[in-house]
Amino acid sequence: MSTKRPLNFLCVTTYHKGADFIKSCKAEGNNVYLLTKKKLEHEVWPWEAIDDVFYVENWNQNDVTKGIAYKFRTIKFDRFVALDDFDVEKVALLREHFRMPGMGRTTSHYFRDKLAMRMKAQEEGVNVPKFTALFNDVDINAYADNVSPPWFLKPRLEASATGIKKINNREELWQIVNALQDERDNYLIEKFAPGDVYHVDSLTLDGKVIFSRVSKYLDTPFEVAHGGGVFRSATCKIGTKIEKALTKMNAEVMTAFGMQFGASHTEFIESKDTGELFFLETSSRVGGANLAEMVELASGINLWGEWARIESATLRHEVYTLPKVKNQYAGIVVSLSKFENPDMSSFNDPEIAWRMHKKWHIGMIVVSESADRVMELLDSYTKRIATDFHASIPAPDKSL
């Protein structure tokens, strides 16, 4: 039976994102409350869809819990939603404290902690690169004895390619481990397997993936972050062997990790040497870097908006219906620009469906009925951007 009163959603994000989730949530007849950082108060939030906003200077879990408890006296919150990777665990703790439905701390770790992801995936029979935690010296040496370099050092709780370092030999490995000192338990190492990296962006309802779109990074996030390249991704041809295999593997990961409902962004690698597919990492949120816009332009599915509708329908015990899916192809190209406001007028093909409007950046999304046409345009644009617009800065060691 449907709940008659408006539901009260508390959307938590310490980054400026999730506008489409907030607008869709409000359009479903709910009250939307935003909890974010004080420094983000002047960002362009969809204020028309926000009933009230709560600010924190610096996140202190106990202070935030007490603040929400105070607000709870007059606002009966029905759902807490984390809109960004870095808020997933914080919100899981809030759910457990207030006994709120949704993902708890244990499940949230599978979508945040790279070590937890690999251990759970391996336990459930999902293929992962050979890895080890950095807890025990004997285990580290045994790993180095049995798994040939190069290896990747990865922080367990960072997002995207932040903090990842390539290690070429045992001596370098121990130099890095020793330099980490008391922080080494927050890292893992895994086998570096050169290959193509893919991402699957999906929606899950009642424990089943109801929508997914497979795309390929044409330049991996690691390459872009550490080599100063141009970021590119494109949706894969539907019905191909790799598209079918990754669709199936993504569903297996969601089942293994206990995803019940919501959005996810999951990455896989196809080994250059063997063709094997390996699970890399996942997250219980919509993909960043404007990949959501690319997926929407290819499929007609707004991941943020549909995630909000799924949350609302699940809580109300109502039937959720996915909008009709289009099967077009899209690709994105984004780069830092040496111009503050680059003139993109020379890019005038009719396939351009989206342009980035951000200072010191240049970017476009193209859409076509033909995957080959998308690739043709991306290749052409990448060369032109590299020659006439591109700028790069060194990758930060840690997330700011």
From TrEMBL:
Q: Which residues form the ATP-grasp domain?
A: 118-312
* Gene3D superfamilies tied to this protein: 3.40.50.20, ATP-grasp fold, A domain (3.30.1490.20), ATP-grasp fold, B domain (3.30.470.20)
Q: PROSITE patterns given for it? A: ATP_GRASP (PS50975)
A GO molecular function annotation here is:
ATP binding
Question: What InterPro entries has UniProt attached to this entry?
Answer: ATP-dep_AA_Ligase, ATP-grasp, ATP_grasp_subdomain_1
Short name of one Pfam family: ATP-grasp_4
Q: Which UniProt keywords apply?
A: ATP-binding, Ligase, Nucleotide-binding
Q: Which branch of life, at top level? A: Bacteria
PANTHER family named in the record: ATP-GRASP ENZYME FSQD, FUMIPYRROLE BIOSYNTHESIS PROTEIN C
Q: What is this protein called?
A: ATP-grasp domain-containing protein
Q: Which organism is it from?
A: Gelidibacter salicanalis
